[in-house]
């Protein structure tokens, strides 16, 4: 059959629309947070391969990056677990620059400790975070190469590879991460018993964030002076203890637990995270009066408009170790997480989910749900189950 010109055009149009739609659908599907999360490498640290080719992606000037691209094996978005002060120093020694450690970041500027002295450094404008998997170029804790400009001023020429870090997924580009503190050893999740009231859902989210960042986390419950007794606190947090987490109970007012907290911080680089007002700065000042964080915190607050919400400050701790004080971070753990992956961060629920009547049970309202049964029999804490259901719902709505 011979088709008329008009008919042919119509068919072609239909085909084109179909193809365009197909194409568009494909792009949309590819861009969902879930798929981006699936298709990107994990956030776990990597170790060098036999040839020493590792995630040696430094943040460097654009042309320098292009020049090296051909020769360097690039693994993006990864931390290199075995970097230490010696290796960073070796890298710096190959250059005419000095090794610096970033202790505070502001827009286009940072403060870096160089040879034990903190100096203000500009950040070279051509440094790009593109391809590193992070949205920000420099973070607190970063090791950088500094070109000295004067006794008190320098220029950051390059950001050296990171050993570890606390990062949160960017809320817009969910496949990218904003790094809050780099090269830290551990995370101290600070909550308060009252004022503000202990909030288990946020602790759960922080624990998930720590696991996704491959960081060891400890939970500190502060303001225990506001509790009837320590036993009351212990009973409330028992599910965390059963899961194998370490808890420290403190009061910056009465001094309870400060010796233990000091031991925990000593010799390590620790980042503290918790809601505003739980007492992070008070605790640090109480265990190390020379830190004088009150003034630091106030001066940062005064400049609030100029800082991002992830503004953090790193301070030396008791001549052995560092602490990173942060403002309240609300959305650390979950962005970009596949809803079906959430259960893996609830080991107490994982143990029983296989026994649910329906194998696609969401453990929210289905009959014959083994999780709900375990809650009813007191084998799983009611609030752990509630947090799981709430977070699962949040993830579904977000994806
Ligand atoms: N009762 C009691 N109050 C405390 C304790 N620790 C801190 N506070 C009080 O809680 C308030 C908040 O303390 P901060 O140390 O500023 O809290 P923060 O976590 O650093 O808050 P941001 O800097 O806003 O994130 C202050 O008024 C402290 O005096 C404690 O152990 N017991
Ligand atoms: Mg504070
Ligand atoms: Zn179930």
Rg, alpha carbons: 25 Å
Bound molecules: guanosine-5'-triphosphate, magnesium ion, zinc ion
Helix content: 25-40%
Number of strands: 15
What is the annotated CATH architecture of the largest domain? 3-Layer(aba) Sandwich
Predict the CATH topology of the largest domain. Rossmann fold
Strand ordering within the main sheet: 12-11-10-13-15-14
Class based on secondary structure composition and strand pairing: alpha/beta
Q: Could you give the distance between the termini?
A: 49 Å
Total count of helical runs of at least 4 residues: 13
In total, how many domains does the architecture comprise?
3
Strand count, sense and barrel status of the largest sheet are:
6 strands, mixed
The CATH C-level class name of the largest domain: Alpha Beta
In CATH terms, the superfamily of the largest domain is P-loop containing nucleotide triphosphate hydrolases
Strand content: 15-25%
Give the mean pLDDT.
80
The low-confidence runs, each spanning 5 or more residues with pLDDT under 50, are 14-57, 67-77, 295-310
Helix-strand string: HHEHEHEEEEEEEEHEHHEHEHHEEHHH
| Mass-distribution shape | globular
Descriptive account of the structure:
With 399 residues, the chain is of the alpha/beta class. The protein has three domains: 45-159, Nucleic acid-binding proteins (OB fold (Dihydrolipoamide Acetyltransferase, E2P), Beta Barrel); 184-325, P-loop containing nucleotide triphosphate hydrolases (Rossmann fold, 3-Layer(aba) Sandwich); 339-398, Ribonucleotide Reductase Protein R1, domain 1, CATH 1.10.40.50. The protein is built from 13 helices and 15 strands. A six-stranded mixed β-sheet has the order 12-11-10-13-15-14, sandwiched between helices. It has a five-stranded mixed barrel with strand order 3-4-5-7-6. The radius of gyration is 25 Å and the shape is globular. The two termini are 49 Å apart. The structure holds guanosine-5'-triphosphate (GTP), magnesium ion and zinc ion.
